[in-house]
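Worked example 2:
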Amino acid sequence: MSLKVIIPAPLRKYTQGSEIVEVQASTVQEVIEQLDSRFPGIRASVCDESGGLRRFINIYVDGEDVRFLENLRTETRDGAEVAIVPAISGGSGEFRNWTNPAS
């Protein structure tokens, strides 16, 4: 099954800058295997040492979060769109009252 994978900016260093990569895969696990065989090192940025998704990486198949489906065993279909999305976090951990800067 041919599908396209949307690569986030932080991982494009592995794909020579490509934002979209086409692969042949029937599961998310196969998507990651295909990507890593073509772009060595990308798997280590997506998966942890036990082979599961890293906490800060989300993968969506046609807009559905695989964590709520079958995780890496989630099946794909021909023409599917798989998006790898790094979680965004931030902030100082410090509360500020912006209406009263002195507080």
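DSSP finds two helices and five strands in the chain. Strands lie at 2-6, 20-24, 57-61, 64-65, 81-86.
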